[in-house]
Amino acid sequence: MNPMDVLLNHRTIREFKSTPMSPQQLNLLLDIAKRTATSMGMQSFSIIHVVNPDLKGAIAEVCNQEYVARVPDLFIFIVDAYRNSRIARERGVESVGERDSDRFFQGWTDAAIAAQNMVAAAELSGFGTVFFGSILNNAPKMIELLKLPELTFPVVGVGIGVPNQKPQLKPRMPREANVFEDSYKVFDSYLELLKDYDAEMEEYYDLRDTNRRVDSFTKQIAGKKAIPLRQQLIQQAEAQGFRFYDLKE
Prior knowledge:
Protein name: NADPH-dependent oxidoreductase
Helix content: 40-55%
Radius of gyration: 20 Å
Organism: Megasphaera massiliensis
Structural class: alpha+beta
InterPro entries: Flavin_OxRdtase_Frp, Nitroreductase, Nitroreductase-like
Shape: globular
Pfam family, one: Nitroreductase
Keywords: Flavoprotein, FMN, NADP, Oxidoreductase
Largest sheet: 4 strands, antiparallel
Distance between the termini: 54 Å
Strand content: 5-15%
């Protein structure tokens, strides 16, 4: 398949064959993730490869997704300002700025795009992938499980393996709804804009699971409920030593 077609046909895989990737494949994907562009070249992220089955099981409980425990290769991408803080201190420099929101969001961006780079490379290599934003259902528990020091924070999990399913291609909203030129475009009615997309999504879910009715995209948006601990991410990051207010040197 043409590489562009691989990327255009991205599917989330939730069931994998038990075969893990080879050490050579693992090293290649890790090298590709590490080659991702990073903010100011600071490389303010790290990757934890989870191999302990008991740890996978505990992470699956955080995610409330039992299949996390069966993912052959599981990676957790984290904000990592701790390493650069230690480097600076060993150089005799200690700055209150090492804890600021800029450092946090640099690391968050670095981690997120490195995770996407790994996913794209894995799919181009014939593997299936899945993102686990659900690790943030209980970030303090993830911090405990992964033994994260201060100035670090979990961002996203990535599962990779040989697919053991071939799900349908999930539709995406029309380009006019979220791709604009020069400025943001506001529509008079988003329900009208997404009417055809709603119908397409209803058909997708009906075909995927005929025994469980799933509403249209716009109804899902309107019915989405917050996860309490995920409403406290800023406070949780502050507990890790970051400061989300103006700092003076």
